[in-house]
Specification:
2 domains; Nucleotide Exchange Factor Grpe, Chain A, domain 2; 3-stranded mixed beta sheet; about 20% strand; 4 helices; alpha+beta; single chain; 3-stranded antiparallel beta sheet; 6 strands
């Protein structure tokens, strides 16, 4: 799905900028999606967006006017889920587009990386923080606001640390909306 020809009602400048950047990003990937390492992430993100928007429209149409509070709560839940999904997919795309050693976009990704960065910046301006925990030390008291999905012994490690982030933590207006999922590296003597 390329986003071509879609109309977006003006709501606020940050949302408008994000939508335009998403359309440009999508259009720049149109010809490369078949061979791109990003195809699954882009397809997943746009599928989620289409499904979410369709579900929200159906929900709004079925909500009677007397249940405005309920409709507002459902809209907030929809927006939080949208931010979580978009943030996770953008984070995954960013990881695939950047050289892990230098932190710079890979040669073939430099052009489309600009659009991803614009979308990332728009989310940050709206108060969304996407946090990758890879390399972070685990505090002495244990894991903190993260879901440890696995532990692996690491020869030579002196403390527990995050080996890999599977899913980033996402915050909106300083409130966690998605708990990160990680793999923890442990010193050999700490785990059987």
């Amino acid at each position: 799905m390329s986003g071509k020809g879609q109309k977006h009602p003006p709501e606020n400048p940050v949302a408008d900028e994000f939508f335009v950047d998403a359309q440009r990003f999508s259009a720049s990937l149109d010809l490369r999606l078949e061979s791109s390492v990003l195809s699954a992430e882009v397809a997943g993100l746009f599928d989620f967006l289409v499904q979410s928007i369709s579900a929200n429209r159906a929900l709004s149409a079925s909500s009677p006017a007397s249940s405005q509070e309920m409709a507002n709560c459902e809209l907030m839940l929809f927006l939080v889920n949208l931010l979580k999904e978009m943030g996770t997919h953008l984070w995954r795309m960013r990881r695939k587009m950047v050289d892990p050693e230098t932190g710079q976009p890979l040669g073939e990704m430099q052009r489309v990386y600009r659009y991803l960065e614009s979308m990332w910046d728009a989310l940050e301006q709206a108060g969304v923080v996407i946090r990758d925990h890879t390399g972070e030390l685990v505090p002495g008291g244990g894991i903190y606001s993260l879901k440890a999905i696995a532990f692996e012994q690491v020869p030579g490690a002196s403390r527990e640390f995050v080996i890999e982030t599977i899913k980033p933590s996402i915050y909106f207006q300083n409130q966690m909306i998605q708990m990160g999922e990680v793999i923890i590296g442990t010193p050999e003597q700490m785990r059987p």
